[in-house]
Backbone:
């Protein structure tokens, strides 16, 4: 029986990208829920996994985007049920807030190709750790201005010079990634009109992010669901 996962999408140009490819290859029934189009959030009891994507809005923008609060509630329920849960960029901020972390504006926008440094816990993590290079870092795409504080009990997995909290794990199956690793060629092409002036994703660097991102995402979607404790 196929596993049923939901991808929560917030704007037209930030779709699942490589996440969708990896999920299909692993036999996952992946349904994209377009919250920006008013589509209804699924019931957590109908899901075996949840992915929350990025977007230009912020966690505090509930007056303009009322679905933000419902998404946080769904993410919290998914974590409580032991489902694999992945938050990407805005999704990581939503996940952090759902679990009791504080989301704030960062020191300055961080946009473009870059890398994050894994913490000792990150290097030991079964999902993000195997992708580290010899210096203990990961190539990623940055595109954010907000940041999160770690939720109670969460483990910091990665940092950058300007943003100490780049990734965390809550429990064994919930991951928040402030950065992007899902940027395949098609997704990068769709981002061109939306990235800030002067920011380009060079193909060589983007392909390296995709290579590392594919293996990371394969490990994530391979996580089994678990019954709540």
Residues:
């Amino acid at each position: 029986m196929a596993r049923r996962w939901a991808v929560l999408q917030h704007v037209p140009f930030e779709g699942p990208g490589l996440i969708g490819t990896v999920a299909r290859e692993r036999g996952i029934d992946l349904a994209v829920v377009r919250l920006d189009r008013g589509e209804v959030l699924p019931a957590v009891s109908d899901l075996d996994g949840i992915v929350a994507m990025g977007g230009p809005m912020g966690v505090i923008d509930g007056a303009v985007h009322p679905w933000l609060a419902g998404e946080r509630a769904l993410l919290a329920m998914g974590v409580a049920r032991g489902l694999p849960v992945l938050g990407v960029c805005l999704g990581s901020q939503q996940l952090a807030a759902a679990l009791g972390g504080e989301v704030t504006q960062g020191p300055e926008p961080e946009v473009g190709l870059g890398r994050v440094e894994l913490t000792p816990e990150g290097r030991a993590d079964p999902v993000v750790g195997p992708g580290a290079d010899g210096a203990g870092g990961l190539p990623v795409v940055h595109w954010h201005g907000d940041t999160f504080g770690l939720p109670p009990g969460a483990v910091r997995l990665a940092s950058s010079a300007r943003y100490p909290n780049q990734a965390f794990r809550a429990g064994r199956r919930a991951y928040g990634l402030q950065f992007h690793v899902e940027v395949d060629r098609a997704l990068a092409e769709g981002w061109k009109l939306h990235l800030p002036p002067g920011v380009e994703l060079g193909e060589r660097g983007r392909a390296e992010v995709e290579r590392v991102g594919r293996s990371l995402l394969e490990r994530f979607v391979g996580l089994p669901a678990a019954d709540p404790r």
Notes: DSSP finds six helices and nine strands in the chain.
